[in-house]
Amino acid sequence: MTSRSTIDFAQLFDAAAYMKSGHCPWTFFAYPTSLAVEHGLPPDESACQLLGEVQSRGIAVAIWVNGIAPDTTYFACRGEDRERLHAILDELTSTGQFAPDFLRTSSEGLFALAQSAASDQVARVSKQSP
Q1: Where are the beta strands (DSSP E) in the chain?
Q2: How would residue 3 be classed by pLDDT, with cut points 50, 70 and 90?
Q3: Dist CA 85 CA 55 (whole Å)
C-alpha cells in the first residue's frame, strides 16, 4: 500500500470555502502547482505520507490549490486545529518518522525542481529559435 492510498480524499475539507466563510486555513506545506500529480498531490511520496499521517490522527486537512499565491498548492488544516497539528508534527519528528526540517527542505526542493524545469524549457526554446 502506498502512502497516497492512506489519504482519505473524500474527507479533505474545502479550504477555499473555509476561507470565504471568514476563517483562515493554516498552511503547513507548499509546493508548485505545476508539479502536482494525481489528486493535486506533490510528487514527493514522503510529503504525501505526512499528509496521510496528519489526517489519520484526526486533523481535517486540505489540498489548497492557489490558496495564497499563484502556482502554489498547500497542505492546510483549519485554524482551530493548528496547535494539535504542531503537536502531531512534533511527535512525527521526535519519533524519527520525519526529519525535523522535513517540511522546509522538501518544499524548497520541490520549488527548486520546478525552477530548474522552467529554466531547462526556456533554454530548449532559445536553442530552437533562429
Answers
A1: 26-32, 61-65, 72-77
A2: low
A3: 10
In one-letter notation, the amino acid at residue 14 is D
Q: What pTM was computed for the model? A: 0.85
Residue 113: Cβ within 10 Å count? 17
pLDDT at 117: 74
Buried b (16+ CB within 10 A) or exposed e, 67-81: beeeebbbbbbbeeb
Q: Which residues constitute the domain of residue 42?
A: 3-128
Q: Is 100 helix (H, G, I), strand (E, B) or coil?
A: coil
Q: Do 97 and 89 meet the contact criterion of CB atoms below 8 Å apart?
A: no
Q: What is the pLDDT of residues 13-48, one digit of tens each?
A: 999 999 999 999 999 999 999 999 999 999 999 999
DSSP assignment, residue 22?
Answer: T
Lookup result for grid cell 502536482: 36
Question: Cell numbers of 46, please?
Answer: 514522503
Total tally of structural domains belonging to the chain: 1
Please enumerate in sequence order all residues whose Cβ is within 8 A of that of 1, keeping only pairs 6 or more positions apart, or say none: none
For cell 524519527, name the residue: 96
